[in-house]
Amino acid sequence: MLGPTSILSGRHWQERILNFTPAWFMVAMGTGAIQQALVNFPYPITGASYWMRNLGYCFWILDILLFCFFTVMLAVRYITHPTLINKNITEFPSSSYFGAIPIALDTIIIGIVSYYNYRPSAMWVAFGLWWVALALTLLVSIGLLIVQVSGQPQHSITDVAGLWLMTCVPMLVTAATGSTIIQYLGTISTKCSITILIISFLLWSLGTTQIHLIIAVYFWRLVSSKLPPNQLLASGFLPLAPLGQGAYGIQQLSIYLANYLRTQHYAPTQSSPPPLPQGTLDSTAEVIHWLGILLSLFFLAHATFWLVQASSAMISRKPKSFNIGMWGLTFPIASYANAWSYLSRDLRNDGMRGWAATTTVAVVVIWLVLALITTWLGLFKGELFNEPGLEEWIPQEKRDEETETGQSSGQSSSSEQDGSANRRQGREADQA
């Protein structure tokens, strides 16, 4: 199904809506991740400067606009062509792009926390939206996974790609979002913050298990076969997304739990405690904090390996065409940079701080290049609105509509005939 050739062509918006897919939400989630990386930029040492926070705010507003626009586009597409819902859900691995929707919503929530954490009303809004993101995350990460496992044809090892991670990435992103909220929600409602803490750690644990299973399979695919096709090379960076978000999330969770133990004198084995000595609580909290740092280092070391591998694959193959999947570069690298920024501030390490700043600048440059290309090829030329396989679904949808129309018209015709016969019989009876 060919997309429009110009923004001024007569069928541009009809074709764009018809060819719109959930993959476009990767643009929104990449834009939101840039905002987070700029807010946590490691220079100056106390955090990003005022102008960088304002720049991040602009990215956040753009993220909101893109998310709303893409949501409307996807809703109109499925309302006008309901058959395509089944197509997008059952076709794997393209169905994995549904994971970009809760991730994009999570980036909006993080923006609320970053800029309005001093307002209780804003924190309650973030708290409510987080539950919406959690529902979408479970729907994608568990519901979609069940559909994929039960309804997909047999796959070979060469079918495995980094895109497979998109079904479980939302769990780690939502967990990291929860870890950001509780740092400020705890001053308003301790009960709500503890609830998010527990759920976020459960999400982090489940997501960590799933991503390492898929990464292991993907690594075996790389060493046993050649690189994925050019259009999927950008998905090689996707392991950085869950690993970077996992590193950031576990460090935030450990910091909050450590502070909670210090301030609330909490000991899980005591139902009605005499409180433990403050020294014991402080030591326990310090151990928990260091465990978070060590786990964060483990995740980031793993992510660095995949950064080197994916970069070398891109350099060796040099993709010659652009597709919307190339936006798979921005969110993973921004998540990786953000995790290093936060860890460098916690450890006060200049080497980490410099590496975090370098990767942040690099991903901003990548975002600018992708934005320019997407604006030209997507908005003006319409070449990026081109979903393969529509030729097999749209005719079937039209045939189904024609069949339903024919049945309804047939029923109405027979009803009219019955009514005419009844009227003739009535007139004959009156004449008699």
From TrEMBL:
<keyword id="KW-1133">Transmembrane helix</keyword>
<keyword id="KW-0472">Membrane</keyword>
<keyword id="KW-0813">Transport</keyword>
<feature type="region of interest" description="Disordered">
    <location>
        <begin position="392"/>
        <end position="432"/>
    </location>
</feature>
<keyword id="KW-1003">Cell membrane</keyword>
<feature type="transmembrane region" description="Helical">
    <location>
        <begin position="128"/>
        <end position="149"/>
    </location>
</feature>
<dbReference type="GO" id="GO:0005886">
    <property type="term" value="C:plasma membrane"/>
</dbReference>
<feature type="transmembrane region" description="Helical">
    <location>
        <begin position="96"/>
        <end position="116"/>
    </location>
</feature>
<dbReference type="GO" id="GO:0000319">
    <property type="term" value="F:sulfite transmembrane transporter activity"/>
</dbReference>
<feature type="compositionally biased region" description="Low complexity">
    <location>
        <begin position="405"/>
        <end position="420"/>
    </location>
</feature>
<feature type="transmembrane region" description="Helical">
    <location>
        <begin position="355"/>
        <end position="380"/>
    </location>
</feature>
<feature type="transmembrane region" description="Helical">
    <location>
        <begin position="55"/>
        <end position="76"/>
    </location>
</feature>
<keyword id="KW-0812">Transmembrane</keyword>
<comment type="similarity">
    <text>Belongs to the tellurite-resistance/dicarboxylate transporter (TDT) family.</text>
</comment>
<dbReference type="InterPro" id="IPR051629">
    <property type="entry name" value="Sulfite_efflux_TDT"/>
</dbReference>
<dbReference type="InterPro" id="IPR038665">
    <property type="entry name" value="Voltage-dep_anion_channel_sf"/>
</dbReference>
<feature type="transmembrane region" description="Helical">
    <location>
        <begin position="194"/>
        <end position="220"/>
    </location>
</feature>
<dbReference type="InterPro" id="IPR004695">
    <property type="entry name" value="SLAC1/Mae1/Ssu1/TehA"/>
</dbReference>
<dbReference type="Pfam" id="PF03595">
    <property type="entry name" value="SLAC1"/>
</dbReference>
<feature type="transmembrane region" description="Helical">
    <location>
        <begin position="161"/>
        <end position="182"/>
    </location>
</feature>
<protein>
    <recommendedName>
        <fullName>Sulfite efflux pump SSU1</fullName>
    </recommendedName>
</protein>
<feature type="transmembrane region" description="Helical">
    <location>
        <begin position="322"/>
        <end position="343"/>
    </location>
</feature>
<feature type="transmembrane region" description="Helical">
    <location>
        <begin position="23"/>
        <end position="43"/>
    </location>
</feature>
<feature type="transmembrane region" description="Helical">
    <location>
        <begin position="287"/>
        <end position="310"/>
    </location>
</feature>
